[in-house]
Amino acid sequence: MDGIVSSEMEHRLDFPGGGMIAVRSVHHPDNLRGEGLDLAVLDEAAFMDGRVWPGIIRPMLATSRGDAVFLSTPSGYNWFRELTKTGLKPDWQDEWQSFYYPTASSPLIAPDELRSIRRMTPAHIWDAEYRAHFSADSGGVFRGIRAALETDDYPGPQRDRLYVAGIDWGRHHDYTAIAVIDATARRMVALERISQESFSAQRDRLQRICAIWNPSQIWAESNSFGAPNIEALQEAGLPIRAFATTAKSKAPLIEGLALAIERRSITLLDDPVLLSELDSYTAKPMSDGGYRYGARPGCHDDTVMATALAWHGVSRSGPRFDFA
Q1: Per-residue b/e over 245-282, b at no fewer than 16 CB within 10 Å?
Q2: Which position has the higher pLDDT, 276 or 242?
């Protein structure tokens, strides 16, 4: 249309007859304040600061009696869920309306594609992203933990089995955790936590564990002081491999373990520390559609990370367990 003035810097279109359309970020909510609005569209509303709507956007619509549209996947029992419930109340229908569209309702996505996605997606992601399901514990990552426990004693190292280990390093405030999985049986067989020991002593402890289980692969976190420890262990002849933990690499690592537990593809040790850490592990939805994984404040995740690293090695080896 002739006469439209666009500004890429301000993400704004101004129309010749008056009026404008602008795109704004909510990372700094107070920057949204300004002239009144006729229409506000809040995309991924559930991930916005809870004061954006009532404290900033709503007052800007008051003079014009403007409209608002809220689009989002769920993110726990927060303000967006309460707003959604308001739109479902019969006595509010003249002012608010809510609509629920799970992915399966889209004619653009084939049912077999959804079935394939479901087989490869942990429940906490499937429920929110595909079912549009509100969950009271939006942070819960690992489900079916107790059903995955093994109560029978393991007979000890077997010559016809292949073993994989995972290491999460710690020193003063955190523990170093070492997990060992029987890759043939997909069963966790050993878990140790080390605290307040020098890294030299920790490496000695790891070598003693390896002498017992003879793992074909050892996956260790390489961040920070992990790198020099890995180098020293490689020089000692251990089959250790580095895993650099980043926001991008951590997500598939944790989601892989979560899916294995849900599907009972792995059998876990009935270890109280491991169970506590799995129970308290959280996923925080991010505005880009991903998740930030970690322990709750004041909790540890050392055994979770060690187990996830060991399972990473098992799953990468494939059905033939080719560790070459």
Answers
A1: beeeebbebbbbbbbbbbeeebbbbebebbbebbebbb
A2: 242
Contact 136, 255 (CB under 8 A): no
Residue with structure tokens 């079935």?
115
Q: Which has the closest alpha carbon to 245: 208, 215, 264, 219?
A: 219
**For 194-208, how does the pLDDT look when each residue is reduced to its tens digit (9 = 90+)?**
887 889 999 999 999
d(CA 217, CA 183) in angstroms, rounded, equals 10
Domains and CATH numbers, the chain: 5-100 (3.40.50.300), 146-317 (3.30.420.240)
Closest-CA residue to 153 (of 264, 308, 270, 262): 270
Question: Residue 67 contacts by C-beta under 8 Å, 6 or more apart in sequence?
Answer: 38, 39, 40, 61
Q: How far is it, in rounded angstroms, from Cα 264 to Cα 282? A: 20
Nearest residue to 166 via CA among 316, 324, 305: 305
Residue partners of 196: CB distance under 8 A and separation at least 6: 172
Task: Give per-residue pLDDT as tens, 119-165.
Answer: 888 887 788 888 888 765 555 789 889 899 987 889 899 989 999 99
CB 221 within 8 A of CB 305: yes
User: What does the pLDDT look like over 244-253, one tens digit per residue?
Assistant: 999 889 999 9
Residue type, 90: P
The count of C-alpha atoms lying within 13 angstroms of the C-alpha of 94, restricted to the half-sphere facing its C-beta, is 1
Indicate the average pLDDT of the chain. Answer: 87
Instruction: Report the DSSP pairing between strands 291-295 and 240-243.
Output: unpaired
The answer, yes or no, to whether residue 324 has pLDDT greater than 70, is no
The answer to whether residues 165 and 210 touch, using CB atoms and an 8 Å cutoff, is yes
Pair of tokens at residue 279: 């129970």
3-class secondary-structure state, position 217: strand
Q: What's residue 139's pLDDT?
A: 55
- Give the Cα separation of 214 and 247 in Å (integer): 31
